[in-house]
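Training component of the fellowship. As part of building independent skills, the fellow (R.M.) carried out the full modelling exercise for a liganded target. The chosen ligand was guanosine-5'-diphosphate. The inputs are recorded below so that the supervisory panel can assess the work.
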Amino acid sequence: PARQKLTLDDYERGILEGNRMILSRAITLIESNAPKHFDPAQELVQRVLPHTGGAIRVGITGVPGVGKSTFIEALGCTLCEAGHKVAVLAVDPSSSVSGGSILGDKTRMEYLTREPRAFIRPSPSSGTLGGVTRKSRETLLLCEAAGYDVILVETVGVGQSETTVRSMVDFFMVLVLTGAGDDLQGIKKGIIELADAIVVNKADGDNRRKALVTRADYEQILHYLRPATEGWTTGAYTCSAITKEGIEDVWNVVLRFKEKMGRSGYFRTRRSRQAMEWMDTMVKEYLHHRVAQDQAISAKRSEIQRLVESGETPPTMAAKMIIEVMERELFCR
Ligand code: GDP
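Fellow's submitted model of the complex:
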């Protein structure tokens, strides 16, 4: 059947009723790059905003092959069985560069995909990290409004996307593999510093003993690092996403975190800081959007670009010329 056009009221009602089809379509609206979708998408986010904030937001990262999707499937199914509604989102800016997604292949999480209490959404595949970030954050809010009380945000441990995901979640978890000594040096210290928990996955079979050694090694390293969250001691844990051993223990760490940081007030502090960061990002995004849409600016830009290419105008001067056009066009100066 042809897709019926939905009004904002339809979207709003559908989301608040937890209608997955409408939620999906609303996310598609948010992810759209068509200029005409921008304002309605923003209005929709604004409308559902009072119904957001109720979920625990957990970021999960790790190199390809560490077991992220297996882990998320195991954790997600466990949580659904316990009565939670779980949304799984992915942030994968690489897809916009490579054209293929590291995260988003369809065969992953086959059980969780069939779980009616779970909602899985692959990474938006367009544009810059900034664009992907905005879309993911807004998607997260829509999922909360639709009643998902656990949001798992997955990202690959390459590039900048960990910082991005850290900036939208309450709790950030880094999955690692066994391997002591030299291997540990290979893990970027910067990522460990963002973590509220280090989880050594694949702690099963012959690997189990090694995993315990690795865990102890990470505990050592963590001892010397400043914790990612004020008042929280980042610990290292082991689990097996395949046998599910340790999965519940890891979740209990998240719950302890929520309880403790809720009491100290840091939970709220972090969220309001994140909201401020987001606002700043949005100002940049908005300007970017406006500039990209403006014909006079792009015409002038192409013209000036040639002057810079030919060496007639230095870049700084060229920038000033373009900014003057922007001020005239956007701010009527
Ligand atoms: P991702 O790239 O981080 O999403 O990793 P996957 O979840 O796709 O897992 C990569 C491979 O590791 C797959 O073959 C999994 O079956 C395997 N794997 C994942 N978790 C475990 C685990 O806990 N134990 C063992 N033995 N294998 C695992």
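The panel noted the following from the submitted structure. The mean pLDDT is 89. The chain has 15 helices and seven strands.
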